């Protein structure tokens, strides 16, 4: 594991030592603990991919026509309050542990578990992420390790354990309806890795790629107006010597009646290689938009997305694709020059006397994909559904069961055709 740099270590130690010192005061200690919360999440995760077509005997693990893993996971999340005074200090701890229940070298490849050099999944993995925080007025400075979710750096939490990052972030809220962000990230621990490593471009590995960086800088601002119905966001991100990127977003929510609501999202992303261009020439532009109409218990969505340039969408390895409007369970439809569209339908079964039961189904099609620069057109489509139920009361309140079913077909790449099942059972227990 790469050692933390001196500047990062100094900032982290300064905040943590300040917290310890202030806790010597009984009044400070009271605020620190009285406003704290601790939640232990029990997450049972199962995934199965059934490969089709030419990939039945070439699944990536080389031994089976399927990829299948089952894990039991524990996520302990402690979030303290702040000490009293004009500057308050706090401490957050995220303890992560995953245990293999089933899965072997012949059925690996789902990214639910890390793999050893022989391609065999680990029996267990995890880590402890600690971050110190300092609050002044309406703003906050955080340093250490935590699970960060921003448009330009979005932690992935779609497998056994969530992704975490090491670094520092300043969040300013001194002006009404305006939030300003600035941060510096030095390390990355993806969803299937218990170590902290340098960052690479999505689709490459920090273990095999020479194009890696320990410096990701970002800044952004979000302004909300129109009675909080409209938000405009602008972001800048830079993975040193690999890529730099600008992101613009407009969100709008327009109620027509108490039962009818229109939501819209428009985004534009522009990126290219940075500095020494360790990953070579990069050129990417993304234009996307989604409109959703919610009427009572029904919701309908339509999304369109256009990729420009000769590169895929630029992001850090292991991060989630949920920033893009057409992101799905197994594809973000973000290949070079790809065009895609999506239709989606959601239903809440509360109208049938089954509160807590919801259904989502969608279809996404991508085409005009540049494949290996040979002039041929790549195509892909995905069909996905989710049936979820959250228990509404009793001792098992908030226990959730989620079944995801998906089918994806492509005419390019490896392991490009499969049917997939995911089952997640999650129970959050509030400890204190």
Automatic annotation (TrEMBL):
Belongs to the outer membrane porin (Opr) (TC 1.B.25) family. Gene3D superfamilies: Porin. Keywords: Signal, Transport. InterPro entries: OM_porin_bac (IPR005318), Porin_dom_sf (IPR023614). The keyword Signal applies. This is Outer membrane porin, OprD family. Residues 1-30 form the signal peptide. GO terms for molecular function: porin activity. The lineage of its organism: Bacteria, Pseudomonadati, Pseudomonadota, Gammaproteobacteria, Pseudomonadales.
């Amino acid at each position: 594991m790469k050692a933390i740099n001196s500047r990062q270590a100094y900032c982290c130690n300064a905040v943590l030592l300040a917290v310890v010192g202030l806790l010597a005061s009984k009044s400070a200690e009271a605020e620190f603990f009285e406003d704290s919360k601790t939640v232990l999440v029990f997450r049972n995760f199962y995934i199965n991919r059934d490969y089709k077509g030419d990939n039945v005997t070439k699944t990536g693990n080389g031994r089976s026509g399927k990829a299948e893993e089952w894990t039991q996971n524990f996520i302990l999340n402690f979030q303290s309050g702040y000490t009293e005074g004009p500057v308050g200090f706090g401490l957050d701890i995220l303890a992560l542990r995953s245990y293999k229940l089933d899965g072997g070298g012949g059925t690996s490849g789902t990214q639910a578990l890390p793999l050893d050099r022989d391609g065999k999944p680990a029996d267990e993995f995890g880590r402890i992420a600690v971050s110190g925080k300092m609050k002044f007025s309406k703003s906050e400075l955080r340093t250490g390790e935590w699970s960060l979710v921003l448009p330009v750096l979005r932690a992935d939490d779609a497998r056994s354990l969530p992704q975490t990052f090491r670094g520092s972030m300043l969040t300013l809220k001194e002006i009404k309806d305006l939030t300003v962000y600035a941060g510096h990230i030095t390390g990355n621990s993806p969803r299937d890795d218990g170590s902290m490593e340098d960052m690479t471009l999505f689709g490459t590995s920090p273990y095999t790629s020479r194009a890696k960086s320990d410096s990701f800088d970002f800044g952004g601002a979000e302004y909300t107006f129109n009675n909080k119905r409209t938000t405009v966001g602008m972001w800048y991100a830079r993975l040193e010597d690999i890529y730099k990127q600008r992101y613009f977003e407009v969100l709008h929510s327009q109620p027509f009646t108490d039962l009818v609501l229109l939501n819209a999202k428009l985004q534009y992303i522009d990126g290219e290689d940075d500095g020494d261009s360790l990953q070579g020439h990069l050129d990417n532009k993304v234009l996307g938009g989604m409109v959703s109409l919610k009427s009572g218990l029904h919701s309908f969505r339509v999304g369109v997305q256009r990729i420009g340039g000769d590169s895929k969408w630029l992001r850090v390895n292991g991060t989630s694709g949920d920033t893009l409007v057409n992101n799905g369970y197994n594809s973000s439809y973000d290949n070079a020059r790809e065009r895609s569209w999506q239709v989606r339908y959601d239903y809440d079964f509360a109208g049938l006397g089954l509160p807590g039961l919801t259904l989502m189904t969608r279809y996404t099609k991508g085409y005009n994909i540049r494949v290996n620069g040979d002039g041929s057109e790549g195509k892909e489509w995905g069909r996905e559904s989710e049936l979820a139920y959250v228990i509404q009361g009793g001792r098992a309140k908030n226990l959730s069961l989620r079944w995801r079913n998906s089918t994806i077909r492509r005419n390019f790449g490896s392991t490009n055709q499969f049917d997939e099942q995911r089952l997640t059972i999650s129970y959050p227990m509030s400890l204190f």
